[in-house]
Specification:
An 8-stranded parallel beta sheet has the order 3-2-1-10-7-6-5-4. It is of the alpha/beta class. The chain has helices at residues 18-31, 47-57, 68-73, 75-85, 101-119, 146-153, 165-170, 175-181, 223-232, 250-264, and strands spanning 5-7, 35-37, 60-63, 89-92, 124-128, 159-164, 186-191, 193-203, 206-214, 237-240. α5 (101-119) links the parallel β4 and β5 (124-128). It has one domain: Divalent-metal-dependent TIM barrel enzymes (TIM Barrel), CATH 3.20.20. α1 runs parallel beside α2 (47-57) and α2 (47-57) packs parallel to α4. The longest helix has 19 residues, at 101-119.
Amino acid sequence: MKEFGLQLWSIRDEFKDKESTRAAFKTIASYGYTQAQTAGTYDFVDPAEFRRYADDAGVKIVGTHYSWTRIREDVKGTIAYHRALGTDEIGIGGCSTEPTLESLRGFIREFNEAARIYHKEGFVLSYHNHSAEFSNEFKVFEGKCKYDYLLEETDPEAVKFNLDAGWAQLAGMDVRALIERMAGRINILHVKDVQAQYCYGILNGHHFYGPQCIEIGSGNMNYKGIIETAERCGVKYFVVEDEFYSTGNPLESIKKSADYIKRNLLG
């Protein structure tokens, strides 16, 4: 891994206006991040100007998490938005379907139809997972989980995957084996760690313990091995997504992740 990026959801409260956005990009660049993936839209600024703030800081936008409604209903606007940002990867953060095979296949059919439209214009659609796609929360149909259907029935030319390694680990998956199975279909790998017994906080007056995603290097995932496998299998971008902050401060947490990567994983 030569460089790494940040999913901007990690520090979403830093993007309030133009001034704070400009400062946020400079801050993450100072930590060592050279790439970014957006989370939603930033309606206080034109996308071309948003990209300019990133460019000025030395940060390249490599993908998005965008509105599935806009992707379906505003093709021209979605294309213009992503061209302004300078990325060819249009992503969604997941999807909710009814726990029936008919509903799941209906989503897959819509996703394929949209993906083929965008593919003709030089874009790919990507799907980001959480842990539920691998579990029986969505039920198991014919011995397969939701993610199996997504992998097997989406168009391999037009659809890519933003594999979240931390959420897959939390679901009990062998992340390296999953990456090997998905070789050539992952553009962005979300890098987060998993700590088995982390006190996340207080819920209903009681301390809440349990497996949690946490800053990279603070958990028990074998990222040296995961990254080796990912590079061999064609992953393009390694993007940190911090969602639970052991430091109590999102900026301190993304710095903690960046410091670990620079010490242990770059090469």
